[in-house]
Amino acid sequence: MKRYSVFAIVREALRQHRGWEPAWASPEPRDRYDVVIVGAGGHGLATAYYLGKNFGITNVAVLDKGWLGGGNTGRNTTIIRSNYLQDPSAAIYEKSRALYETLSQELNMNIMFSPRGVMMLAQTEHEKRGYLRTERANALQGVETRFIPPEEVKKLVPIINIDGPRYPVLGALWQARAGTARHDAVAWGYARACSAMGMHVIQNCAVTGVEAVGGKVTGVQTTRGAIGCNRLGLVVAGHSGHLANMAGFRLPIESVALQALVSEPIKPCMDVVVMANTVHGYMSQSDKGEMVIGGGADGYNNYTQRGSWHHIEETVRALCETFPVISRLKMLRHWGGIVDMTGDRSPIISRTPLEGCFINAGWGTGGFKSIPGSGWAMAELMARGESSLAAGFGLERFREGRFVDESVAAGVAH
Ligand SMILES: Cc1cc2nc3c(=O)[nH]c(=O)nc-3n(C[C@H](O)[C@H](O)[C@H](O)COP(=O)(O)OP(=O)(O)OC[C@H]3O[C@@H](n4cnc5c(N)ncnc54)[C@H](O)[C@@H]3O)c2cc1C
Question: 1, 44, 62, 338: which could form a disulfide with 235 (CB 3.0–4.6 Å)?
């Protein structure tokens, strides 16, 4: 793989850009691999990457029924933060945030990580108490957050209305090194690095069945034929229930559509990410100038990758209340993705009842931020059979009642 560099850009500029090679190969599937990962979203690709990088396992195929990064990884609003409440969550999300800091250099792909700061507004006394608690928990966990007063909120976000008629801003939980990144580039960067290690990233290859003998996985059936493997990773977000069904077990997961929208591009007016959980909406400004706006999840299970009208209305209403200056903006487009929600709003990174089959799912509305850390933990679990980062997120917690309750940290989504 040729490295991207300033010298490569100059060289290609001098020869009409005829020397660029495809970022990743498009091979035909082989009959057998050591490891097959189902799902070429961020989590599946990161798992493959760290299997190769950390454990030298490169006889790996990553299969996707569509195009890589075409699921939630390419549909999210790209917020990266690690200010969760419980210790297992803070550990994996902070590991992930830290990996994001140097991911562009590591993958030799500009993922546009922008640690511009994320604030979560407190707009009721109850919410304020909750964030003060999180601030103290984060201090013990080594996650840098700070509860800031309304005047500091206004200073950081001049366009915000802190004297809202219904819910005035009482302060915010502020994480200065949180931010955003370019979602497609994260998927492309991992795919390119996997391909460079000799792994197969195979698009348009849907898995239709899981093969097992004597309670142990032996391979998968796909739309491009049978593929054997010793270890199988299911990393398919909103479709996890279907894949688990193929592998013969059930998951405590519901799949719902979560949606987002963007406005027309405008001049720079906001250089941090603001989440307003009480009125329910959040917003950041992309490098193109569009206001990127996140809405709510549908109240019923479904697989439609579209937005629904009443959510747009509710989200826009919430944001006009928080940022009155945006009321004249035109919205450009909206879309949805199928998110996989667990009861405690925490992920599953786990062995399964089928030997050799592992699952990574349940990231729900907030799994973009965790892609590097989740891939790191899942690779360790698949290679070694255990991972300290994944230990709290086993499937058995639902049977044993050991929930990792993040319903507050993940409440507004993202
Ligand atoms: C509107 C929206 C906003 C969001 N905002 C944020 C945010 O700001 N911050 C944040 O941290 N998170 C956010 N999220 C959540 C985040 O996007 C997801 O948690 C994360 O992208 C999940 O990644 P993944 O790799 O697990 O899944 P995906 O990217 O969905 O990848 C799963 C892949 O599996 C493939 N697949 C499914 N079934 C099969 C099959 N049978 N055979 C082969 N392949 C199959 C799919 O085609 C898909 O490509 C948001 C999500 C949405 C929808």
Answer: 44
